[in-house]
Amino acid sequence: MKLNSKKCKEMTISFLQYHLPLDNAIYIDGSPVQSVSSFKLLGVLLREDLSWCDHVDYVIKKANSRLYALRKLKKAGLSDKDLVTIYSSFIRSRIEYASPAWSTLTQSQSDLIESIQRRALRILLPEMSYQDALNYTGLKKLSTRRHNSCEQFIRKLKLDNGPINPLKDVVATRIHPNTHNYNLRSESSWSLQTNTERFQNFITVKNNY
């Protein structure tokens, strides 16, 4: 496979607050590869510090442009049921695209994502509170749906016994079978020892039961 330097990007993963100048530029066929701090990979915006602020901003902008259409359809007299279907199909689906990959949001980022659904339900049911609108429409909070999506993703990985499953060892069960007949006071289990909240919230750690 021949690489195209114009379509390739170089990004250095770093959690430092300052950046050291790097002189080791990458070249392909004599052409330098552009160095970036963020880029889009399969529809998800990645940052050099592995935070999701750029992707959250991107999702919010996309969703806001579609909320305008929802407001117009509401004024056109569509039923609540049809409006909920349109929201779920054309707005929420875009918000939740590849959500297991970027589920490790901060609380403020999660609130920003949730505000999209709040605005949508305010357009549909302006006289109701957010919780009442959720109950009326049968919708769930986006944070709850992301959590459920992550759990479902991990379950599918555990059930995938195919020869090509790069995450199989990562999500292997944490419970070790006993190799003796003694009854111990605690189960033979282990958990990863981590020093960072970032790692503890990673999908294969947080949702791997």
TrEMBL record:
One of its GO terms (molecular function) is methyltransferase activity. Signal peptide: none annotated. Keywords: Nucleotidyltransferase, RNA-directed DNA polymerase, Transferase. PANTHER family: REVERSE TRANSCRIPTASE DOMAIN-CONTAINING PROTEIN. This is RNA-directed DNA polymerase from mobile element jockey. It comes from Paramuricea clavata. The lineage of its organism: Eukaryota, Metazoa, Cnidaria, Anthozoa, Octocorallia.
